[in-house]
Amino acid sequence: MALCGIGFVGAGSVARALARAAAARGWRVCFYDIDGGKAVEAASHYGGLSFGSMEGLAAESEAIVVAVPGPTAGRVMVEAAESSRPGTLVVDTATFKRDVVAGARGMPPGALAALTHPYSGGGCRGLRSTTWQSCPSPGGRASRRLRGSTGRWASTP
């Protein structure tokens, strides 16, 4: 059994907002941040654990939320998935920008990826062999772009 319900890579404002909601619903939240002090502070604030490495966090989390700046998010998603248990959901909070989508395309076989953002860049075309999940507004730009991709996707109302 994993030590963490949700592991957050990054301990900035987006991760903390999501962790606050998750912790309020009884999820054990854990953090890794390149600034170890931020991870310790966030974990202490939300009653969770902090990890000194992303690999340690990924190995002990049921789901992983990548909440890092867009330019690094794709690479971080792949690294988190490679260090996680089989079937662990890896969620990105950055965007559908090309570098994030390119990184998500490099996910290991069987990894579950979710790219989430209310808007999307032009990089969604040509996604294959991965299940993509998003929460686009019905009929919105993200919804149309996902419908046009070759990947399978699920929309949460």
Strands, helices and their partners?
Layout lengths: L3 E6 L3 H12 L4 E4 L3 H11 L2 E2 L3 H6 L1 E6 L3 H14 L5 E4 L5 H8 L6 E4 L15 E4 L6 H7 L4 E4 L2
Parallel strand pairs: 1-2, 1-4, 2-3, 4-5, 5-6, 6-7, 7-8
Helix pairs in contact: 4-5
Kindly list the characteristics that best describe this protein:
Rossmann fold; 37% helix; 6 helices; globular; 157 residues
What does this structure look like?
An 8-stranded parallel sheet has the order 3-2-1-4-5-6-7-8, sandwiched between helices. It has a single domain, classed as NAD(P)-binding Rossmann-like Domain (Rossmann fold, 3-Layer(aba) Sandwich), CATH 3.40.50.720. Residues about 120-155 have low confidence and may be disordered. Helix 4 runs parallel beside helix 5 (about 100-105). With about 160 residues, the chain is α/β, with parallel strands linked by helices. Strand 7, helix 6 (about 140-145) and strand 8 form a beta-alpha-beta unit. It is about 35% helix and about 20% strand.
Question: What Rg do the Cα atoms give?
Answer: 15 Å
Helix-strand string: EHEHEHEHEHEEHE
Provide mean pLDDT, rounded: 75
Number of beta-strand segments: 8
Count of separate structural domains? 1
- Percent of residues in beta strands? 15-25%
Q: How many H/I helical runs? A: 6
Oligomer: single chain
The CATH class is Alpha Beta
Which structural class fits the helix and strand makeup? Answer: alpha/beta
- Helical content stands at 25-40%
User: How far apart lie the N and C ends?
Assistant: 30 Å
CATH topology (level 3) name: Rossmann fold
User: Would you identify the regions where 5 or more consecutive residues have pLDDT less than 50?
Assistant: 118-157
Give the overall shape, derived from the CA principal axes. globular
What's the CATH H-level homologous superfamily? NAD(P)-binding Rossmann-like Domain
Q: From the coordinates shown, what is the CATH architecture?
A: 3-Layer(aba) Sandwich
Biggest beta sheet summary? 8 strands, parallel
Q: Largest sheet, order of strands side by side?
A: 3-2-1-4-5-6-7-8
